[in-house]
């Protein structure tokens, strides 16, 4: 956050609120090595949400997750999209993940092949 020129006093929503929404409130003091893959992915989502952005770009947000954790994260992203009015752009190679999105744009070789 310091890299973005922000202090934790100027954040909206508050970090504690974001962690609670993501189910991480009891894990806030744990080092990354003690978090599961799903928890690490949710930490990434939490970082993206601090500062109340209008747009979140997620590159392979489910890439390292098992099927259950993928489903949980996708539900969470949809809930946050609805609750906070976020625009989400999700890049994925997983067709099952792509099918959960409102709109899909397919690319090949750096070119749009289907929209």
Automatic annotation (TrEMBL):
Keywords: ATP-binding, Lipoprotein, Nucleotide-binding. One of its GO terms (cellular component) is plasma membrane. InterPro entries: ABC_transporter-like_ATP-bd, ABC_transpr_LolD-like, P-loop_NTPase. It holds the Pfam family ABC_tran. Residues 25-62 form the ABC transporter domain. The keyword Heme does not apply. The keyword ATP-binding applies. GO terms for molecular function: ATP binding; ATP hydrolysis activity; transmembrane transporter activity. PANTHER family: ABC TRANSPORTER ABCH.1, IMPORT ATP-BINDING PROTEIN. This is Lipoprotein releasing system, ATP-binding protein.
